């Protein structure tokens, strides 16, 4: 795989060990053009960067060495991890994003992403449950890579975790008053944070939408229903934590 290089100055000066890298975080650029995206990622004023950028033709650009911490994740949490910059590799996919006209991800772009992911997973022995979207780890701030991102294609290529569906489970969810408690208990087990399992919040809908963008992409409404509870239960109970 051919990888070009455009260096960004936005990274830690100290090198990190290979063992420190445990996650891969997928983003979209969310800007009007590839040129604007690269300009921002190499600007010292922006204080943002990524390890890799893949454009819509499938061209891969390396911007920060993997042994340096790139500034792509920002304020973030997943399970017991905080500030995931230090433990992750960031990959930006050129896409206008929701603000400028959210696009489907081209086949060429996703195929190169798959090749890159396979290389990184093998090199760093990254768990298939540790390949995440930006909205998974920062659901109050971010919505990328969004509901058009083809997680199922990554599952088919045996890169991303595939959960088992148990159609015979009895979730005892006849009482809608229990929906939130059951759902957020499942989300906590999966790895999502930024919520209180026992107390509702005005931010609940953002957490729910983050889950839906990943696991139920056809309906992003921020509401907990039986389908969401079933999916969350199956995901949570298929994971080897």
Question: What's the order of the H and E elements?
Answer: EEHEEEEEHHEHHHHH
Residue runs with pLDDT of under 50 for 5 or more positions: none
Count of domain modules: 2
How far from one another are the termini? 33 Å
The strand line-up of the biggest sheet is 1-4-3-7-2-8
**CATH level 1 name of the largest domain:** Alpha Beta
Please outline the major beta sheet. Answer: 6 strands, mixed
Radius of gyration: 18 Å
Shape: globular
Number of strands: 8
CATH topology call of the largest domain = Lysozyme-like
Question: How would you portray this structure in words?
Answer:
With 241 residues, this protein is α/β, with parallel strands linked by helices. The chain has two domains: 3-156, Peptidoglycan recognition protein-like (Lysozyme-like, 3-Layer(aba) Sandwich), CATH 3.40.80.10; 176-238. The chain is built from eight helices and eight strands, in the order E-E-H-E-E-E-E-E-H-H-E-H-H-H-H-H. The protein has helices at 34-41, 97-100, 107-124, 134-137, 151-156, 179-190, 204-215, 226-238; strands at residues 3-5, 23-28, 52-54, 60-62, 77-78, 81-82, 88-93, 131-133. The strands form two sheets. Strands 1-4-3-7-2-8 form a six-stranded mixed beta sheet. The protein has a two-stranded antiparallel ribbon with strand order 5-6. Helix 6 runs parallel beside helix 8. It starts with a strand and ends with a helix.
Keywords:
two-stranded antiparallel ribbon; 8 strands; 241 residues; 8 helices; Lysozyme-like; alpha/beta; six-stranded mixed β-sheet; globular
């Amino acid at each position: 795989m051919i990888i070009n290089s455009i260096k960004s100055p936005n990274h830690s000066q100290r090198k990190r060990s290979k063992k420190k890298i445990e996650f891969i975080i997928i983003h979209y650029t969310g800007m009007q053009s590839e040129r604007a995206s690269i300009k921002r990622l190499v600007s010292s004023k922006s204080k943002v960067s990524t390890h890799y950028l893949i454009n819509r033709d499938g061209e891969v650009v390396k911007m920060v060495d993997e042994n340096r911490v790139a500034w792509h994740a920002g304020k973030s949490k997943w399970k017991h991890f905080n500030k995931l910059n230090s433990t992750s590799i960031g990959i930006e996919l050129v896409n206008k994003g929701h603000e400028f006209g959210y696009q489907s991800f081209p086949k060429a772009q996703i195929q190169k992403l798959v090749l890159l992911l396979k290389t990184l997973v093998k090199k760093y022995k990254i768990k298939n449950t540790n390949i995440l979207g930006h909205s998974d780890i920062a659901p109050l701030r971010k919505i990328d890579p969004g509901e058009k991102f083809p997680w199922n294609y990554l599952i088919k290529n045996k890169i991303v975790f595939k959960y088992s569906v148990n159609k015979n489970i009895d979730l005892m969810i006849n009482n809608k008053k229990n929906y939130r408690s059951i759902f957020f208990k499942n989300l906590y087990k999966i790895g999502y944070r930024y919520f209180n399992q026992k107390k509702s919040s005005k931010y609940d809908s953002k957490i729910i939408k983050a889950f839906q963008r990943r696991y139920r992409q056809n309906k992003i409404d921020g509401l907990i229903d039986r389908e969401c509870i079933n999916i969350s239960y199956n995901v949570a109970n298929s994971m080897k934590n």
